[in-house]
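A reminder before we start the practical. When you read a complex entry, don't treat the lines as separate problems. The point of joint prediction is that each chain is placed relative to the others, so the output describes one connected object in space. Small molecules and nucleic acid strands, if listed, are placed in the same frame. In the example below there are two entries. Take a minute to note the order of the lines before looking further.
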Amino acid sequence: MNPQPQEQLIRAFSTHWIKYWGPAAAYVVLTGTGMLLFFLAIMAAYHAFVLSQITFIAGLIITLGIHHWFFHFVLSDSMDDIIITNRRVIFLDVDLLFCDDIREIQLEHIIAVEARKHGLLQNIFLYGTLWFDTGGSEMLEGRTLPLVPRPHSIANEITILLQKKNNQ
Amino acid sequence: MLPFVIAVTIVHILSLIFMGVMIFEYLHIHEKHMILLYSFGDPHILHKRWRKWLLMGAYAFFTLAISATTIAFLLYLFRFLP
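Here is the predicted structure of the whole assembly.
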């Protein structure tokens, strides 16, 4: 994917940090569980050695499993995934070892942009969904960007780009 | 005791292999993104490169720290060998 002639970068940013909350909470809880199992393994070592070994292995698998899962999520989602230029909007969807998608919408195909912030969390933490109307009536997955920080400001920028493009 | 030690060793080796594969894949995908952003003239590219090393460093450090801690626990358990 190379820049088109006279294509300029307007903005490149990552989706909202709220995406890390769920995995971070799971990481803390399950790492705590793993540590508790290690503690139980030590406590049981003198009286029940076999039980201690089983507990130790379970704690090890839980701790390492959740650790790798969490960092897999962080490394996959830490990269910039929304790129806006004066000619198109590019959305990069990466899930390390599983998925590496690039979706792009040319500005000339966009009729309108809709920004949505629904619910308490989205309004407090200022994130929402962007929907690009390309002529269909449904909110299809390929035309929707979730977890966009300050979606109204981004929609405004894209609308200005669309107006400039239409005036050319 | 030997099967237990072998099982723990296998889990650690698998963990280190997985970490290596993930870091390799991350470097590959990240570089591809950086080339894309560089071609568009993104001015924040240096900051994004630093963030890459910080994340990979944290991942490697915590993986090795967990391994070291569990090996220390294992050595502690050896005191109770029947």
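Discuss with your neighbour: The longest helix of chain A spans residues 49-77. What might explain this?
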